[in-house]
UniProtKB/TrEMBL annotation:
Highest classification ranks of the organism: Bacteria, Bacillati, Actinomycetota, Actinomycetes, Streptosporangiales
InterPro entries linked to this entry: Methyltransf_25, SAM-dependent_MTases_sf
Keyword field contains Methyltransferase: yes
Protein name: Class I SAM-dependent methyltransferase
Pfam hit, one: Methyltransf_25
Record-level GO BP terms: methylation
Gene3D superfamilies on file: Vaccinia Virus protein VP39
GO molecular function: 2-polyprenyl-6-hydroxyphenol methylase activity; 3-demethylubiquinol 3-O-methyltransferase activity
Length: 269
């Protein structure tokens, strides 16, 4: 296992242990256990557009963290499987499934080296928000995802737009990350997107820029057919963005808005 994977796994082990403990605004585990879903309307809409009703479908959630979204798909009737490279995350996801009395499979694996047992099993492969920036090669990620799909199955990827990923702050505008190129960039972080304090031993990460062109080319190289590529201009929450009068978070640039996230739907022929 290379140094970047070890570094990032240490980071995500720490986050899997820290997130959703009742003191952050991002993960509401109590609400989930009381019957609510962690899925956004955008996530539901994109999956529905790709595959219809998920009830009874085999759905694979890549980079599932500690399982809230995977289990939310299970609650909607999917035969859900979650994959994460963090042993801490997978253990916590299994405990959460038992506590919620939901059936789901959780697999500990690097997404670029998925076990053969997942090959060709799924109607939907899903991943959302903060996905590709942790991956050294979009082409390798797409190949892994495609290998898990049945013929006719759909990939649904929702991720932050590269314009947001490359930006440290919006007001003032400070850029500290490339738009594209897939070259590794090292960061030192004292907080995550959900919590403000992290152990000083778990602050290093390695992240990778992937432009929209690289992402779409990677889909094609994996043998998938792109059915939709949507760019959105507002978010529910993002600490880097600016809240508009309607409550939505946006990326102002002069007298216009820049895209903040994108959704890609592709199908295995």
């Amino acid at each position: 296992m290379n140094d970047a994977v070890v570094t990032n796994r240490n980071w995500w082990d720490a986050l899997a242990d820290r997130h959703g403990r009742g003191d952050d605004d991002y993960y509401d585990v109590d609400a989930f256990l009381s019957g609510e879903s962690s899925l956004t309307e955008r996530e539901r809409t994109e999956v529905a557009a790709a595959a219809g009703d998920v009830s009874g479908l085999d759905l694979l959630h890549l980079q599932c963290h500690f399982g809230l979204d995977t289990l939310s798909w299970a609650r909607e009737g999917a035969q859900a499987t979650g994959v994460d490279f963090s042993a801490v995350a997978v253990e916590r996801a299994r405990k959460l499934a038992a506590e919620a009395k939901l059936s789901a499979e959780f697999v500990e694996s690097d997404v670029l080296a998925l076990p053969e047992s997942l090959s060709g099993r799924f109607d939907v492969v899903f991943a959302s928000y903060g996905v590709l920036c942790w991956i050294r090669s979009a082409a390798e990620w797409m190949a892994s995802a495609a290998a898990c799909l049945r013929p006719g199955g759909s990939l649904v990827l929702i991720d932050m737009h590269p314009l947001v990923t490359m930006t440290d702050t919006v007001e003032p505008l400070v850029v500290d990350f490339p738009y594209a190129g897939e070259r590794p960039v090292r960061f030192s972080n004292s907080s995550s997107y959900a919590v403000n304090e992290l152990s000083p031993q778990t602050t290093e990460t390695v992240q990778y820029p992937h432009g929209i062109g690289e992402v779409v080319s990677a889909v094609a190289s994996a043998g998938l057919r792109v059915e939709s590529l949507t760019e959105w201009f507002d978010e529910d929450i993002d600490p880097k963005l600016v809240r508009s009068p309607d409550g939505r978070m946006r990326f102002p640039f002069g007298d216009q808005w820049l895209p903040t996230s994108y959704g890609l739907r592709a199908r295995r022929p």
